[in-house]
Amino acid sequence: MKNKTDLRSTISDSQRSQPSVAIVCDWLLGTGGAERVVLELHRMYPNAPIYTSQYDRTPSIWYGDKWFSDADVRTTWLQRLPKSLKKFLPALRSWTFSHLDLSQYDLVISCGGAEAKGVKTGPNTLHVNYCHSPTHYYWRRYDEYLKNPGFGRLDWVARLGLRTLVGPLRRWDLRAAQRPQLMLANSTHTQSEIKKYYKRDSIVVHPPVDIDRFKRRKDAPLLRHGFVTSGRQAPYKRHDLAVAACTELKVPLIVIGTGPEHKKLEKMAGRNVTFLTNVGDEAMAEHFQSALALIFPSDTEDFGVTGVEGLAAGTPVITYAQGGPRDYIIPGKTGEFFDKLTVKSLVDVLTNFKSEKYKPEVLEAKATEFSPAVFQRNIRTVIADAQKTTQL
């Protein structure tokens, strides 16, 4: 495994004669949607070093060669700090990335929803930013972070720091968002957020989804039963709505995952609700494939990879009528929307839901629009167009 903990690097004269690429991301500390975008960029540019603030090698133990084990990952001095402090570090990441000089590269792709876009590039560098969202804790979700910082007994410290620093950090974030020549958004919702907070135009390139992992087997059971919901159990994910609605209707619900809301969800759940906290890839796909629908109740997702995974399993998706899912949920064809973040609104949809009117092959076809191959093709197209326009 290649892994660098020093950002200093040398490029030979022969290497300099070839177009060079660098990838930058906020952090590599899990296996979520943001990390999967970086992984796909690495597959596109396998020789490009990946610059990041902190890197957790643990996922590579589980994913082997599929998870950055062959990548040249170059971390900052923040690597020496505990990854549990990630949320405490925005000011330090801002300073660190703004001093990271990547002017020796022809193409820099920064990827994330925080500070990575602030890197330095030169006059001959094309800097493309793939934006998951304008930085949540400065902008749209600022009040939510103040209410639930997620640090337990140290919440008061996080609140004090955020209140004190949010002004200068917002100003820095706005300036950093002007550095890339091209901004890409992961959804039309994020595109509108970029315009609102950064005053910039952007091009929508949907993220890659591992749809093959959720494809139905030929011997998959035809009978479906109950509902399923999945994801990190954090307040804004609103799994409480799914649990409360299914408990009220006394319909089976499987809740997959864990998080800070887990104990709360268990206490409010009826006997018809089953919690599964350690589910492998194969079992996850089977749960999605055997459900009447995937309930995806999150409060205004930036994109919502889980929803596309449901479609790939041939399962309709019931989701909140705001945010990224509007790019792939078509009422009556690929799923249904509930209009308000209330139990009643979700109950009304579940009560009238008819799973038999959805055709698995239609849902699966929709999911293919978000495959890694489509992502790669779209990324190459927008970058090629930008290179022609900027003449870098």
> What characteristic shape results from the CA principal axes?
globular
* Count of individual domains: 2
**Distance linking N and C termini:** 33 Å
Biggest sheet: strands side by side, in what order? 1-4-3-2-5-6-7-8
Number of helices: 14
Report the top-level CATH class of the largest domain. Answer: Alpha Beta
Q: What is the CATH architecture assignment of the largest domain?
A: 3-Layer(aba) Sandwich
Main β-sheet description: 8 strands, parallel
What fold name stands as the CATH topology of the largest domain? Answer: Rossmann fold
Q: How many E-type strands?
A: 14
- Average pLDDT across residues? 88
Q: What percent of residues adopt helix (DSSP H or I)?
A: 25-40%
Give the DSSP E fraction (strand runs of 2 or more residues): 5-15%
